[in-house]
Amino acid sequence: MPTPPSDTLGRPAGTAGTGAAAPPPPERPSRTRRHLWLAAGTALSLFAVHANWDIPLAAWLYAIPLLRFTRTGGPVAGAAWMLGVAALGLAFWFWQADVFSPPMLLLAAALALIEAAPFVLDRLAAPRLARRGALAATLVFPAATVAAEFLTATLSPLGTIYGVLGGTQHGSLPLIQIASVTGVYGVSFLVAWFAAVAAHVWETGFGAPRTRRLVVAYTAVLALVLTFGGARLAFAPPSSPTVRIAAVTLAQESWDTKVGAAFTEFDSLEAIVGADRARVREVFAPIHSELLRATEREARAGARLVVWSESAAHTREEDKGALLEQVAAVAREHGVYVQIGVSVYIQEEPHMRNETVLVTPEGETAWTYEKAHPIPVLEPYDAGPGDTPVADTPFGRLATAICYDVDFPQTLRQAGAQGAGIVLLPSNEWEGLRELHAERAVFRSVEGGYSLVRAVNRGQSTTVDHQGRVIAATDYFDTAEQVMVAEVPTGHVPTVYSRVGDLFSWLCLAGLLGLLVMAARARAPRHGG
To answer: Which of 94, 126, 143, 380 is the 20 to 30 Å CA partner of 404?
Structure first.
């Protein structure tokens, strides 16, 4: 008697054994449907890059259709498409930030590879890991996102100014309190993990028990983070004494006339250091006089500390002492601390140092700090050593950094590690960074447990407390003469991040490597169609 044909489980063909028939493999979605997912994700991604037109919700949603797109197609084609999406987002950000230039395009090409990597790694590893469990499969994308952000901030000259998903959530105070433990990257992880979980639910449906368990697990983690944040806001608000601080910048008209005239006459750094010394002093004297008058006015109004913006003053190195003596005279007369931002022009190349100098009420110099992170391409001068100075005052411990330094968490973390209660951040920006840079700076306050005072020429001056609340803000472009005055909390609040640094990011990087090893050892799933 012939043996009937059997299926791969040894059952006779056409029977289902004691259970139901095995479900057929899922159909591949149509090309049209996949391209609609790609278009939707790409459009949302443009509002999730933390530029001036950000939509915080877009950061939670944009990756969902893109993950669905990459997981339902070939890895090579998916990688190519994600590279294009990343490049478009970078170009859109550069355009909004007004830094679109050929050198920046070269930088964008390298960054696009990093930005696309989380989607590519998810496509390669998540389907294999899904055979072991839904949780492991969904962790690839958030771990890769944090790894990409962290490596970019640590190894590239861009820091966190671009591509940090968590930065889009600067206005959600309960959520961003987790940055006091993990840094901003913890917020990025939660946002990216949401997309991975949602994409998994979309792919498998909500009926599978392990999918429901996954959703419960993510919801529990998010609820725990929000509970921690809410409790921190409710039970640990700023409670230390405050100090009145004034941030002064040149009036718009003065910038256009006095500064404009100076750099029309001296059209290069070489021209400044090669010109007649007396003429250089004469050209920059009206700028210094205006800043000193504003300092005296704010001191008489009760300010205990006056901060000038980045590069507000200009002096040849041999005349720096005379400028500081003028500042010291005001500080002594009014019993006020004065921090000046000054461009110091030197004979040796690259002919400039970007400094801040803190002058005490006794007329002494408490610190001189050089900018540690000049902006790539735009600021071709040497970087300072990056050692954050601190000074003890009657109203607490102060620290400082300059402008773009704030985009490097490892630099600003020094202030928190040294117990600073207030960090002074003079800046000199442009309209393309009008809101972006102020919003990014919020995370440094939460991470370090200090108040942050940003004195910004051609941008938004802001004061933020240690929990990310904006205490005061003024906009250079909306005021004839920008002066920001704030009562600033002076106390330092210890944070986990100040002590352990980027431990969370290193754990994400190690976890990603572990997940990739697990995926490499797993069998690839078979696709239908």
So the answer is: 143
